[in-house]
Amino acid sequence: MGRESIDEPLVPLQRPTLFLLGINPAYANHDEEFVLKLQEKRLSVSGDDFYINDAAGNPFLHCKGKFFSLRSRMEFYDLRGQLLFIVKRKLMSMHITFEGHTPDESKVLFTVKNSWRTFGSARAKITFTNIDGQETELALRGDFFDRKASVTLGDPEGPLLCRISRSFLNKRYLLTGKDTYYLTIAPGVDAAFMAAICVCLDEKENESCY
């Protein structure tokens, strides 16, 4: 089952499929559970920049936020400084929607479309063309009060791909208002893609506060 009760112990995530899942095989080719820590930079004049590190604290990705009057733009770079993809807020959409584009912005790689939600909850549908060429859909379900979310394959009851948890009222948040997220990613799942989904969730939550 994709959803877990808050009273259930967290068991190690299993590989959800025989094939790699995501948009970039280089970030999906891991055989064990993978943990990322995402921290909003404390002092950022350009927008919501994120430190994205692995469990040992080593840099994993760079996310640079650039915000304009009508839409946000988030650029994801590898450790060599190569642009991997660009995430932009889609204009003229009934629901808050983000699109991931190729570096030259000629193609949409994935879409994160938020749906109506009850107070304190988050719901989104993620669509993309998988590494193997198959059109694929993911579901995101979150609970603000439990400070957690999950990404599953297909629907909310599908195989669990990623757990997202958020530090709550820690010293850093109280001083800066900046969030810290922890992602636990299943083997064979694109970790960079999951990080992008988490950043979209953060941006959506920020917009919901205004």
From TrEMBL:
Classification via InterPro entries: LOR (IPR007612), LOR_sf (IPR038595), Tubby-like_C (IPR025659)
Pfam families: LOR
Protein family according to the UniProt entry: Belongs to the LOR family.
Protein name in UniProt: Uncharacterized protein
Top-rank taxon, per record: Eukaryota
Gene3D superfamilies reported in the protein's UniProt record: LURP1-related
